[in-house]
Design a protein that fits this description.
With 156 residues, the protein is α+β, with helices and mostly antiparallel strands. It has two domains: 75 residues, no CATH class; 72 residues, no CATH class. Helices cover 37% and strands 15% of the residues. A three-stranded mixed sheet has the order 1-2-3, with helices on one face. It is globular.
Length: 156
């Protein structure tokens, strides 16, 4: 949460939605206090017998939306975007697929792999729905980057 607040760079009050994981509640309160529109989306799962060898989670019976602080817009109380991003990351990087042995043995290697992935995703890859890179859509850059730019290699 400290890292998130630092990245926001004092750009006004934000809306944040998390799942019901207790450390989020504690962390958001400790870092943002009441200066945030904060809500939680909690999924209640059906109690069912998973059976032998089942790996998937049970079906969702109910989704509860709970305002924690501020005045979050109910139309934007969602964890879908971050859940979709997590799925895309897991599917794109073998290190994050479930039940894999393609893990990073060193934290430094994992951090480097994640940094390269997100650099590619945001600066080098044109997304079919946006027709530009996410960094271009956000106004961070005006062109698709090359690996030479990312790595600081002079192409002359």
């Amino acid at each position: 949460m400290l890292d998130l607040k630092k990245r926001l760079n004092g750009n006004g009050k934000i809306q944040l939605t998390t799942d019901g994981f207790l450390p989020y509640l504690i962390g958001v309160e400790a870092v943002f206090g009441g200066d945030i529109d904060f809500s939680q989306l909690v999924k209640i799962y059906k109690g069912e017998n998973p059976g032998p060898g089942r790996y998937s989670p049970p079906k969702v019976a109910e989704v509860l939306s709970k305002v924690i602080s501020g005045n979050p817009d109910p139309d934007f109380i969602s964890t879908s975007y971050v859940e979709r991003q997590n799925l895309t990351m897991r599917m794109s990087m073998r290190r994050f697929t479930r039940l894999t042995n393609a893990f990073s043995k060193k934290l430094e290697n994992l951090k480097s792999a994640v940094a390269l992935y997100f650099t590619h995703y945001n600066f080098l890859r044109i997304h079919s729905t946006l027709k530009v890179t996410p960094a271009m859509e956000a106004g961070i850059t005006d062109h698709v980057w090359t690996w030479e730019e990312v790595l600081g290699i002079n192409s002359n």
